[in-house]
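Instructor's aside before we start: the two examples that follow are unrelated to each other. I chose them only because their records fit on one page, so don't look for a connection. First example below.
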Amino acid sequence: MTDQPAASRVLVRTEGALGRLTLNRPEAINALDLGMIQEITRALEEWKTDTDVQIVLLDGEGRGLCAGGDVRALYDQIRAGEPERTADFFRAEYAMNALIAEYPKPLVAFADGITMGGGIGLAGHAAIRIVTERSRLAMPETRIGFTPDVGGTYLLGRAPGRLGEYLALTGRTLDGADAVYTGLADHYVPSENLDALREALAYRADPTGPAELVLLFDETPEPSGLIAERAWIDDAFAADSVGEIVRRLAERSEPAAAETAGVLAELAPTGLAVTLDAVREAREGDLRDALTGEYRRVLWFVHHHPDLVEGIRAQLVDKDRTPRWQPATIAELGPDAGAGAREFVPETPLFA
């Protein structure tokens, strides 16, 4: 956590017709804590009825929009036996994600630089999502034995073919072209033009809306590298289980398929099973349904499974990079490994 006041970690101001929210915790790549979430929510609620604010812009200081949630604080809360604080955080964050998606005014997000985890929950649900040549997007939760959340399963569940399962399980990082191709972004704007675009959104008197203004700055990126990989990804990640996905990967001749099998073998088997189930469930229903499903799974990990704490320990606390997963291998997964997380009933509902 940080002693920096929430108001200084999120800069809230107006510029012309623009309400601007800038995440200002660059030393942590703008990782979200509860105070920041509350400050963003407060400003968005206030601007709903402010007739001077016609468009909202979300961006970040430093190397990216947002690297995710403050998982070290999450680790400390679980270790301290304070799961109710963790539940408070996720309820506030998911309510913010829904607010962004349902916002009554055009909301523009600059996913410039690192935009991962909680950052996808900010940018991915905006009405107009912009990436640049510096953008690096991912839902990397399986790397710490966890599962994608913040509505990430909803977004990935709508990616072409089986890219949703692939990206959710592997946590692969996307560039700007990949983000547009997979549906995580709408427009590619060179970073050198962001200031001019921001100025246009704030001050240009134009009868058209912000989407039309963005088109004046939009450029076509190079084709996504994922296009050429679709054959083996769609084949393998259509399988019914994590074990079957790995088996299909082993049967493919593409070197990238074998590399992917190796990546999955290093990750938490339970987290992979829960994630596969979550993405497929999120293909049905709306964003609030997906957030509710993620909330059940996240709190199941917090209350009932050790892999989340172990993953954070290995990656961010002790940094020994040798997590001891339970179970240790994909082969040890039961036939319905994600069922407990899917069926978990939190003590406090997400949306009252």
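Example two begins here.
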Amino acid sequence: MNSKYKVLKFKSNNFKNVDDLVSIEEPLEISIKYKNNDNWVTQILSITMRTPGHDEDLVRGFLFNEQIVQDVKHIQSIKSFGAKVGQYKIQNKILATLNNSKNINITKIKRDFLTNSSCGVCGKSSLDALEIIKTKKPSLAEPKISKKVVLQSPDILRDNQSEFSKTGGIHASGLFLDNGKLVEIREDVGRHNALDKLVGRILKKKNLNPKKQFIACSGRLNFELVQKVLMTNIGIMIGVGAPTSLAIDLANKYNMTLVGFVKKDSFNIYSNKQKIII
């Protein structure tokens, strides 16, 4: 499922306005219904970000892979519900009814999901919690970075990763100055973890300066990564991969300049082009 976005594309030293197909990203709130003694209990289990479509398969696999149920026959039904919301008019809530509480791991649910927020949005307890509690927006004017800095940042990030990164199994996030100098870099097998590590390092060293800095990440750019960067008030985010629809929408809402698909001689600006020197 995808949608068209207007993009300012830089390639071979020229800028051009083009239409770009972007994968749609939407939150899915997963609830479960089960019997506790003689009473039916409905509990929000988790929120995950997904490309809409095949939601029942996603929930079925999620419940089995996390061993909430040990056999899919213990899932009585899976049904989407609630209003069709957002610009794509999609139902973003789904309920799995389990046929026997003896067949589900209630202890695991309470331990691993209801109190766990380690994976960002995935651990939030309702869709309402997705709204960022944030009134301040990054500056629309600062920093400004050149095309050369944009193009070089992925190579600098890659060159400063560890030897293990050469296996291709490690993601990285880096803090850069507006002149292209790398300030800090952190790695992890998870994109979100790499960014969390970077922000933690920045805060510990007290060298955060949003008007002079930007962040570059390996991989694609989704809602959660944009949300994490916004919390630092840094207003430019660069990625070597594609952004999702929700990442672009969030960047636009909070004045972030979002740049993706950075290659040797090209990149796409998905929001707020004024911070890239054209």
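The chain has a mean pLDDT of 86.
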